[in-house]
Amino acid sequence: MTAPSDRHHPVFELHDVWKSFDSQVVLRGIDLRIERGEAVGIIGPSGAGKSVLLKCMVALVPIDRGTLLFDGKSVPEMTPDEQTHLRQRAGLLFQGGALFDSMTVEENLEYALREQFFRSMKPNEIKERVAWALASVGLPLTERATMPRDLSGGMYKRVGIARTIITRPEIVLYDAPTEGLDPQNAHRVSDLITELRERLHMTSVVVSHDLRTVFSVCERVVFMLDGQILEIAPPEALAGSAHPFVRDFVIGHPPEEPLDPVQSQPPEPWPPRAAPHPKTG
Description:
Layout: E1 12-21, E2 24-34, E3 39-43, H1 50-57, E4 65-70, E5 73-74, H2 80-89, E6 90-93, H3 105-117, H4 123-136, H5 153-165, E7 171-175, H6 183-200, E8 203-207, H7 211-217, E9 220-225, E10 228-233, H8 244-251
Parallel strand pairs: 3-8, 3-9, 6-7, 7-8
Antiparallel strand pairs: 1-2, 1-4, 4-5, 9-10
Helix pairs in contact: 3-4, 3-5, 4-5, 5-6, 6-7
């Protein structure tokens, strides 16, 4: 893992960040700080600008104006090589996993390494890193020859996470990591995000509509609407937000329904996984 240049800086710092595509304004004056080592969730309705925000942060999409700093350095002013180095330190898990269908699991993982370390990594080092990444997400090495189409939904997500962490980033930005998963696999991926953060000392940013995942893995939650941040608060505080839209979204009430104070509670985080019963006999 690459050592950060100055641990006193926030990992990301954004001030008055704007982004448009033609006449459509997607980000409207975003102000946000993400500190080193924390877990931040970003929630809000579809079209709020959440995924675009992540892509701007890792220099995949340029901002139109404002200040965007990574580790104290201006992202728009970075050279292409410096932006590549940024993406080595801050990995993005794309929505849906985005594995190459024509490549095996191993080839997908190797591709990520060759893209970023083509000058420095030897073939044996690449093989070792693939084995490490698979083990880190709880997948056996025997899955390396599997094609993406033959993976279950939960395994597909895990391979996507393995491809993201294989460069050993300091920060992982997860875009809808549990989308399309059944509750059991969503729980497993949520546990994995927490485990990776604790074991590998990563900063985590999680964009999701799955409030259980956000509430179970994140310390702060950013609520976005129409390209703006309405509120930043601990997950347990959002049900009592002063913004009716935030309250309704978190509690699950349609905006036109009055809130019932008895039912006005956010969804419970995932319960702890029960320990297996010891075998007898």
